[in-house]
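Example S7 (structure tokens).
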């Protein structure tokens, strides 16, 4: 099945083939997987820091049937991580389990959330040549009909270009007939405000929309999201 309008971009065609690869070769998800392709020597180095939002006691948004976004975020991040590494890209994860990354001494949920965000910022800022890709799920219970994936970008370039490229890939894949536009992130979002590298935040869909919530919990749909994000990231790179 073709999810994208490839328009002659061989990278997109290949990435789509990985949907079949994911279904047939679980080994790509193993930590020791070796890259099938590597970036060209002349390309500037990038390390994609993949951030699964929330975790542990902080489940984030919750679907009507009680599913927290933290687990969905992590599932998408793991698939995106495997795909990028398979394509020869360098990655780092802010968390690889359903845990909060707060420091010892944080006791209340508020303290843990604050410590968690500060630790994520410190982690990202310590990675040379980092590009932050933060994965989240949206929710708007007051208007349950709202659905679709949307990308937000931070203040450092090429964040806006990355967001536009990833948004285009998501529109071609999961937003058909419901296309959205990338937007600058609100300055109140601590993680995006304080990292010192290009950064995008991907709201993969709305847990408050019953139909989309059901899709977001399905591994095959999570793979589709991962492919779209990876295609957007790499398409922006080859267009530099």
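Recovered sequence:
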């Amino acid at each position: 099945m073709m999810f994208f309008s490839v328009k002659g971009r061989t990278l997109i065609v290949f990435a789509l083939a990985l949907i079949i690869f994911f279904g047939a070769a679980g080994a790509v998800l193993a930590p020791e997987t070796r890259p099938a392709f590597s970036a060209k020597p002349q390309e500037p180095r990038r390390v994609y820091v993949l951030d699964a939002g929330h975790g542990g006691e902080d489940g984030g948004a919750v679907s009507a049937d009680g599913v927290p976004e933290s687990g969905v975020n992590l599932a998408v991040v793991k698939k995106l991580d495997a795909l990028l590494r398979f394509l020869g890209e360098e990655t780092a994860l802010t968390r690889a389990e359903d845990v909060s990354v707060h420091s010892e001494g944080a006791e209340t949920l508020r303290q843990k959330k604050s410590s968690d965000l500060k630790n994520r910022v410190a982690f990202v800022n310590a990675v040379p040549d980092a590009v932050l890709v933060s994965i989240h799920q949206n929710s708007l219970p007051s208007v349950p009909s709202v659905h679709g994936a949307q990308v937000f970008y931070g203040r450092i370039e090429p964040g806006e270009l990355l967001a536009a490229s990833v948004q285009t890939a998501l529109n071609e894949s999961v937003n058909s007939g419901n296309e959205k536009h990338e937007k600058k992130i609100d300055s109140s979002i601590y993680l995006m405000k304080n990292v010192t590298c290009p950064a995008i935040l991907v709201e993969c869909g709305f847990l408050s929309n019953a139909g989309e919530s059901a899709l977001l919990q399905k591994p095959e749909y999570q793979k589709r999201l991962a492919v779209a994000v990876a295609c957007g990231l790499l398409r922006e790179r080859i267009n530099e």
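Notes on this example. The chain has one domain: 10-238.
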